Amino acid sequence: MPTNRLLPAMTRGVQNAVKVLWMLTKIIIPTTIIVTLMDLFGILDHLALFFSPFMSWFALPGEAAVPLVAGNISGLYAGVGAMALLPLARKQKFILATMLLLSHSLPQEGAIVAQAEGKAVTVTIIRLAMAAITGLLLNLIL
Fold it and tell me: Fewer Cβ close by (within 10 Å): the C or N end of the chain?
């Protein structure tokens, strides 16, 4: 009878969904709190000023460096969580999200490349370069 297989499958599906939700919550909430505190204490303003010349190449405000760095170091969801707090235009969101998709979780994925006996530094440099080139091109095209 199909019900005998459906209920266990649904139960596993719900359990997996809760696990993923919990994992995302553990990343996005702390990132949101950290970025909010950085904003409250004026740290975000200093970072924005410092990174503005570089980020302007991609039509992004200096504050966009925070989600980019968070995503590159911690993971894609940390970058998305930080990005959600910034008042960005649609074009800016698209450029930043695309750059994050190309270069995220660099330490973790570098370790995986090294485990597979690849050249982690080379792969990391290529991913960062492709993110930058793509960001520049999207700024010109959009």
Answer: N
Rounded Cα–Cα distance for residues 34 and 40 (Å): 10
Whether 135 contacts 92, CB under 8 Å: no
Whether residue 44 contacts residue 38, with contact meaning beta carbons closer than 8 Å, is answered with yes
Tell me the domain boundaries of the chain: 2-141
pTM of the predicted model as reported, rounded to 2 decimal places: 0.77
Q: What are the residues whose beta carbons fall under 8 Å from the beta carbon of 137, sequence distance 6 or more?
A: none
Contact criterion met (CB below 8 Å) for 65 and 103: no
Tokens coding 116: 């597979």
Say which residues have a Cβ less than 8 Å from residue 59's Cβ, sequence separation at least 6. Answer: 91, 92, 95, 139, 142
CA distance 131 to 126: 8
pLDDT in tens, 78-122: 888 889 889 999 999 999 999 999 999 888 888 888 888 999 999
